[in-house]
Write a structure and sequence with these properties.
Order of helices and strands: HEEEEHEEEEEEEHEHH
Oligomer: single chain
Shape: elongated
CATH topology of the domain at 104-276: Cyclophilin
CATH superfamily of the domain at 104-276: Cyclophilin-like
Structural class: alpha+beta
Number of helices: 5
Largest sheet: 10 strands, antiparallel
Strand content: 15-25%
Radius of gyration: 55 Å
């Protein structure tokens, strides 16, 4: 008796429409692959600090070659980032960065004191010129000879004083006549450069002077004193606060020319000579070491007394001269010769 044989025939290349179960398995496989790729990307971005849960000991790793139909849908937990270590503190011995102190001019007047912040970064030439004039005493016992509703102006022995030189005008978008307290140099008579000594302080906005009259400072304190100044009020003194040595050294050659012209103009105007300050090239240099005292000169050895001269032998007296024999008498004239 023959047993019936069952033959299972599997069709290769079935279409999804003929086998919908296979299409569902393919979609699940794609989703699982995408989830695994995202997990890898997150772990790579997190870097070595990211940690993931390790599988328990003895667990058999999942066979990724099995069909997608046997893989249950799972959710991938995002990797846990380990707390980052705190940034290392800077060593206590590291010095904190420092900035150079700004130069300030203290102006003592009959009405009080106000201070000017010199804007060296924006107008170095004007600031170097102003500092040099202050150090030489050009503004001592001068006066605010010009007064208007906009400004208070000073600048040396008088409004008509010509120092014999002018300086280049400097402009900056950071320095505009947009309010009171702007300190500027007056323009030279030709209008192309700045006056050597005349300066003024504003008491109100004056935008029409922007990029025409050079500003070199701003009032840091005491604007009320500036507002109260009247024509003829004197300047007791101006003092520079800070170290101007680097600035003066930078413009040493210009300072030499300015001082030569200033001394000549002061002498020609019959004014007292200005103070002499150390040369700008030596400004900021270390003081010279004191000269070492010269070694004392050793006393010279005493001169030995010379030996007495031996007495000379006495000169022998000269022998007496023998008497001369008398001459025989001559024969009378006309006598015969013998």
């Amino acid at each position: 008796m023959h047993r019936p044989r069952v033959v299972v025939v599997r069709t290769i290349g079935e279409s999804p429409m003929m086998n919908p179960t296979r299409s569902i398995r393919n979609h699940r496989h794609v989703l699982a692959t995408v989830a695994l790729a995202l997990a890898c990307i997150v772990a790579f971005v997190a870097g070595p600090q990211a940690t993931t849960a390790a599988p328990p000991t003895g667990e058999t790793p999942r066979d990724t070659t099995t069909t997608a139909a046997t893989i249950a849908p799972t959710t991938t937990a995002p990797p846990t980032l380990a707390p980052s270590s705190a940034p290392a503190a800077a060593p206590a011995s590291a010095p904190a960065p420092t900035t150079a102190a700004a130069l300030t001019a203290r102006v003592d007047t009959a009405r009080g004191t106000f201070r000017i912040t010199l804007r060296v970064a924006e107008a170095p030439i004007s600031c170097a010129n102003f500092v040099n004039l202050v150090q030489r005493g050009a503004y001592d016992r001068s006066a605010f000879h010009d007064w208007t509703r906009v400004l208070r102006q000073s600048g040396g022995p008088g409004q008509s004083f010509d120092p014999g030189y002018t300086i280049r005008r400097e402009f900056s978008a950071k320095l505009m006549f947009d309010g009171p307290g702007m300190v500027a140099m007056q323009k030279s008579p030709d209008g192309q450069r700045a006056h050597g000594t005349q300066f003024f302080v504003t008491v109100k906005e004056q935008s029409r002077w922007n990029l025409d009259i050079p500003i070199f400072g701003t009032v840091a304190s005491g604007q009320a004193v500036v507002d109260a100044l009247e024509k003829g009020d004197g300047v007791t003194q101006i003092v520079i606060e800070g170290d101007p040595a680097p600035l003066l050294k930078r413009f040493a050659s210009e300072l030499a020319e300015w001082n030569t012209a200033l001394d000549a103009a002061t002498s020609q105007a019959g004014l007292p000579a200005l103070r002499i300050v150390p040369s700008a090239s030596a400004a900021g240099a270390a003081p010279a070491a004191p000269l070492a005292p010269a070694a004392p000169v050793a006393p010279s050895a005493p001169v030995a007394p010379s030996e007495p001269l031996a007495p000379t032998a006495p000169v022998a007296p000269l022998a007496p001269l023998a008497p001369v024999a008398p001459l025989a008498p001559s024969a009378p004239p006309g006598s015969p010769r013998p």
